[in-house]
Amino acid sequence: MIRRAFAGVVLVMLAVAGLWWWRWHRPAVESLPAPRVTAAARRYQCAMHPQIVSDRPGRCPICGMELTAVQEPAATPAPPPATATSPVPGRTSFTLSRARQQLIGVRRARVGVRPLRIAVRANGTVAYDPGLFEALIEYQQALRARAALAGSTLPEAQAGADALVRASAIRLRQKGASEQQVAAIARGDTAPLNLLLPGKSVWVYAQVYEYELGLIRPGQWMTITAPSLPGRVLGARVAGIDPILDPATRTARVRALVPTPHGELRPESFVDVVIDVPLGERLAVPEDAVLDVGTRQIVFVVRGEGEFEPRTVQLGQEAGGYREVRSGVVAGEDVVVGANFLIDSESRFRAAVSAFESQPGAAPAAAGGHTGHQH
Length: 375
What we know:
This protein has 375 residues and is an alpha+beta fold. The protein has helices at residues 2-30, 98-104, 130-148, 155-174, 179-186, 340-357, and strands at 40-45, 53-54, 68-73, 94-95, 107-110, 112-126, 201-209, 221-225, 234-241, 251-259, 270-286, 291-292, 297-303, 307-319, 322-327, 334-338. Among the domains are: 77-115 and 281-368, conserved putative lor/sdh protein from methanococcus maripaludis s2 fold, CATH 2.40.420; 130-194. Strands 6-7-10-9-8-11 form a six-stranded antiparallel beta barrel. The two termini are 68 Å apart.
């Protein structure tokens, strides 16, 4: 009897030890990463909050909407094509069905080469520039003095006249006259002298900021309107650009000789100026396609019926609702222009789930109902 009782106690102790060992090691066994499946897995997702995902029907804990069933492949996303840039950190490619795209309002646009134009807007005034007028007069007098000394036998006199002409020309350039205008005055052209009183034409000075000066060239068309002339639109071409910036405003004056047959503009009148800057043919995407994520700009390229791929793009000028693209996409590709933030949220969610599942000891993402973080 004693032996039987002792054997029973030993059996009970062994059973308890085995149960304890199984309970202690069960989480480590269950936490082993599950093999990826290639078959389609049914999931349920919120249309307004893509980060809310469940393996069973229900309602969104944020907005209360019914979760929509989505039939999506759970396989690892395909690698980007050869035209793609380096992967976008924190985002990944994924696919959406046509029905799902229509539900969240996805729209797309074609990347292409198109003519781009920029309108540079600036404040301006009708010229009243005594300093420039004095510099012009000094230059003319220096030219006359050099002409009078042309036949002099004194080399010093001729050298002094040449130095005076050069100094007055430099002052003209500092005051904003272009090289072509200085050359025209040397030939006897008096058109640039109309700087104090209006006549059949007036000079308009437009104050253009430093960051826009690189776009301005002589010959570009300038449109001028004035508060004192409601409904009137005047036009002229850019004649010159000041070589020196105003240190207080960080602007330089852009000049144009504006025809005014009726002499309706007075000196020092305020005007509004728009300079048309053609950029030529450039590869561009709509502004709505670009997401600025702080350290980079990205777009989502649509491949096939519904594969969305994040790309980093290098952008150029912004013009007329489009952004110039210097790298990242090629002509003929489609980019997302509607529901960008939802697509971006889905891409970040898929990347987070993929990173979690790839960690050793991680449980399958769909095992716990709702996954991902909530905003």
